[in-house]
Fold each of these.
Amino acid sequence: MSIKIENLSYSYRQHAGEKVDALKNVSCFIAAGDFVGIMGHTGCGKTTLIQLMAGLRSPISGRIYINGEDINAKSYDRNSLRQTVGVMFQDPEYQLFATTVEKDVAFGLKYSGLSPQEVTARVQWALATMGFDFEKVRFQSPLALSGGEKRRVAIAGVIATKPQILIFDEPIAGLDPYGRENFLQFVSQMNKAGTTIIMVSHNMEALAEYTKHLLVLDKGRLIDSGPTREVFARLKQRKNGSLGQTEAQRIATLLAEKDLVLSSAVVTYDDLLSALKQELAGGALR
Ligand SMILES: Nc1ncnc2c1ncn2[C@@H]1O[C@H](COP(=O)(O)OP(=O)(O)O)[C@@H](O)[C@H]1O
Ligand SMILES: [Mg+2]
């Protein structure tokens, strides 16, 4: 399923009555089956943008179309949106609230129209997908689980509705390298199976390795978007350069300062490796 955003703006009113413009005239298109990363400094509007995409806030102005349908139109069926778009917010482990793991994962299926047996089967599938033994955890309290397990239960709750669009807000922050890799592999598989993925992250390596397109927000404005490699290459050219660079890009810059200018554009570690190999091969021939 595709998402089209047109001239989207959103402001918050803060306690003193002050207005904060969180999003300013943002337009973009996310194609069905894409894997899109959203990056930008804290406070630039990333969470606000995905809350709007998920229909949890209404825009001040502008429109959001999911598969061509305006999700803020009066006639739009909000229940269908809940089944179409799955969102996992920051620190999802604090959002578990049901008395058992099974009930927690089943919560989003309330309005799905599935029979109780189908709901159980779906919950079993979602928990198994996230690496749990259903019979072992179904009656456990989510609060008794470890941090990593809680996060996996939260993801199970999001995928239980089999949404066609999955949105993750900083899903790998706080995970250890193993948990991070596991999560990214899992999301990558969901994407290969056809799910549209949108992932907010501060992890440049994860964005560079896994996403196909990037949206870059700065103080509520969309300042760049496009194929991931192209966006990273452009961000490197920016004067302040602070928005986002991969470690491989930094190393390439350091090498260039030492007069080892690599011929091909380096964004990921793999690029760096092949560029160095090329350089070595060239050196051997000379
Ligand atoms: N509930 C809220 N009330 C008032 N201001 C908010 C609220 N949520 C976010 N903001 C403000 O809106 C801006 C964008 O926030 P947010 O979308 O959370 O950014 P990000 O996720 O990129 O860190 C920030 O200036 C933030 O302080
Ligand atoms: Mg945020």
Amino acid sequence: MEDKLLLVDDEEGIRNVLRISLADLGYTVFTAADGKEALTIFKEEQPDIVLTDIKMPGIDGVELLRRIKHENPETEVIMITGHGDMDLAVQSLKNDATDFITKPINDDILEISVQKAREKILVREKLRAYTANLEALLREKSALQDRLSSLGLRISSISHGIKGLLTGLDGGMYLVDGGLKKNDSDQIREGWTIVKEMVDRIRKMVLDILFYARERELKPETIDVHSFCQEVAQGVGQKLKERGIEFHQDLSGATGSFRVDPGYLRTALINIIENAADACQKKEDLAAPKVVFRAAEENGEILFEIADNGIGMDEEAREKIFELFFSSKGSQGTGLGLYISQKVVGQHGGSIRVRSQPGRGSRFFLKVPRSGPEEGESAAPA
Ligand SMILES: Nc1ncnc2c1ncn2[C@@H]1O[C@H](COP(=O)(O)OP(=O)(O)OP(=O)(O)O)[C@@H](O)[C@H]1O
Ligand SMILES: [Mg+2]
């Protein structure tokens, strides 16, 4: 695109001659006969370079320079001076004029002066692009740093969590040992319950971490939807009941077969059901904690729905829950659960949607097509 140049002189003859020379140099030239007209054109056209006579009736060159710089300080303004304009020339310098050319104007000098102004503009543009690049780079770097330090933080909090579980395990074993020595079966049972609980939690945590860390392949099988759902519900339903949470299942619409990796899809669903149970327990004074697991056919796909009447989530949380390591559970959670669920469902060609409000429970919807993943599709993070 051609550069725009505004030429201001009260003498029509000079305007005509200079206009031709400047157009020859490749500029789109606008002309004005005085300062007032010049300002109007300047605001409309936003030229990069202004060439103005220093002595003009009304708004003179210096005043015009001042106003243009006020409007856009990056405009290059070249002053045309005559004999005896020394005083005005000094004032122009103070107001950041780019250059001076004296009357009568020599074409070569005009070309050099305008060229210099153009170079200044180009350098500034380059500098700006460079600075923008640098800023983007800096932003990337600090985002990376954030991610790394949150990874470190999570790893130390996971280790801390495991340490806590191991201490719990020690406590359970201590009770069992003491019970054995005293032949106290109540104490043995109490200790054993703790041991089982701790082992369960450690297993879950380690499996989650392994799942995240390792790249494995999906092994799709064609299986019966209903029996798959029943199997998921049976295992997890028992656990929820033990935690005092009502578990309700509605699998009447889950018919036919689909092609999935049953192990992975089970993990994906159980993660969400366990979250639902946690959400119920986090809600204080919840009279009837309840988790509903529903599965049905919808538009040729299988739609799983997991609903709870727990604490719910605000918008900020809703946006973050699928992020790796996002957890509100401190050392009780790794923040891997939903990240993994979403990966698995995504790799089955499906999707997860959430509806939730603080204090009003949550509803997770998982859509899984019947056709399932491609053979050998990788199940781990991309
Ligand atoms: N049903 C729900 N109701 C309210 N909050 C939820 C629900 N499900 C998930 N969340 C929020 O999303 C976060 C992330 O869940 P995610 O399963 O990924 O990790 P986690 O449960 O904290 O840890 P874990 O790795 O042990 O599953 C939870 O910490 C919780 O804040
Ligand atoms: Mg979870």
